[in-house]
Amino acid sequence: MLPVTGVWTVPFTAYLLLLSNRVVHQRIKNKQWIGDKLNSEKNTAGDAENPDPLFLEGRCHMNFLESVPFAFILTAIAELNGANRTVLNYAMAALFALRVGHVEVGLRGKGTMAPGRPIGLFGTQGLMAGMAMYTAYLVKGYWGY
Per-residue pLDDT tens for 31-52? Predict the structure, then answer.
């Protein structure tokens, strides 16, 4: 049983659906059915002050998908190896806050480089490294320690 991992699928999935629908909204609004930019002739993807809206929403969606699935794998492995459920719940709550902050007060903030972006990025990396180390600690007996 993976009750902690299971409980956290709800908010993470809800937020993933929001991110997905923002991409779909840009596609419908601009009648852009394929590609990752609205205007491929004018490269606005790298313009931080005036980003291409489809590219921006796509990056928000992709950034979420780059880290969250592996974080769930780490959580499930830790939980299967007897991790403290309170620790896991706090870790998943922190991860959710970091990922939402990365997008909502980071990428979608002023100039696409608001404070939420580096906090979300480095916080997520630190949390995942910590989770991996915690999981390794939980199975230390396997290595003879």
Answer: 888 777 776 555 555 676 788 8
